[in-house]
Amino acid sequence: MFRLFSGQMQNDLAPVRPGAMFDQKQALPCAERQPAIDHRNRMTCAGQRGLEMGGHIVRPLVIVIVMHPLGREPVEPAQDVPLDRARRVLVYQQRGGSMAAERSQQAGPHAGARQPVRGIGGYIVHAGAGGLDSKRGGEMGHCLHIEAMPQQIDLFASTPVVSGLRMVTDAVDPALERALEQRIDAAPLQPFQFGQWRGKRLTANFGSGYDYRRGRVADAPPLPTWIEALRERLTPLVGRDSGAFVQALLIRYDPGAGIGWHRDRPQYGEVIGLSLSAPAVLRLRRRTKNGFERRKVELPPRSLYLLSGEARTAWEHSIAPMAVTRRSVTLRTLR
Ligand SMILES: O=C(O)CCC(=O)C(=O)O
Ligand SMILES: [Fe+2]
Questions:
Q1: Which CATH architecture has domain 173-334?
Q2: Alpha carbon of 289 to ligand 2 centroid (Å)
Q3: Which GO biological process entries does UniProt record here (predicted)?
Q4: Above 50 in pLDDT, residue 193?
């Protein structure tokens, strides 16, 4: 997985920004699949970030939960971790010791710099912090060893708001983000066209496209190697195999551009979105007897979301017109 990313993608990016992917490779935290040495070490590694909450550190790699930081509603936690267990982890971590105690525990080759995680309306897996634990976590090694956490504490009720929506922050780091921005800007972007209607956002499809006039999937250029490499990196972060994500859509939203309410075409299956360049809000709604039920999820730059299950099939989504340029990479399976 990583080899493809650091090799092919580096080569592919070279003409646009020499060294960009090399930088990225160097910056990838704990990217090597090193065998876990002991439990403590698996919890900490170079470049990992912790979350400081109320004077306590939430240890990196843990499913991190931000409880309604902005008064927003939570979303389903990333990875296949039952919500109540994820919450227990937070409680455990908060009780687990002071920041000073945590710092002293983190000394050594795997100690890492800390940065607070931005507030986001839901449950977060802080992927940028992720080391890969091939033994236990496998591809989903970003999810720390939940099994190791105490099970007895359960202070919160668990009600996932939009089933099937998963969020991962820092799915790529800023250096890779810049390289991807250049790749997107260099792609054959065209204004989104829907019959007579021309959208403000600029799009380019790879792998397969969609003919809105005929209402069916259409040919598109094959996935470039840099998108293949990116796909290898992103899909495990939401617990998916890369191979099924055969469709890629690049979008640039310049100021004034957004995307209206829609569900992705039924020809597509699951959807993964990487959000770049500027914060945005993913709005979700589904029809009820009396109108619409609505949710909002903040998408910080470099965050990744998965639309699966109900989030994909029962909810519509949209992004309000942007004030500053945002870019996204959407990967989709075909049904
Ligand atoms: O830009 C995004 O993150 C969303 C794109 C989207 O919803 C779509 O193209 O169907
Ligand atoms: Fe969409």
A1: Sandwich (2.60)
A2: 24
A3: demethylation
A4: yes
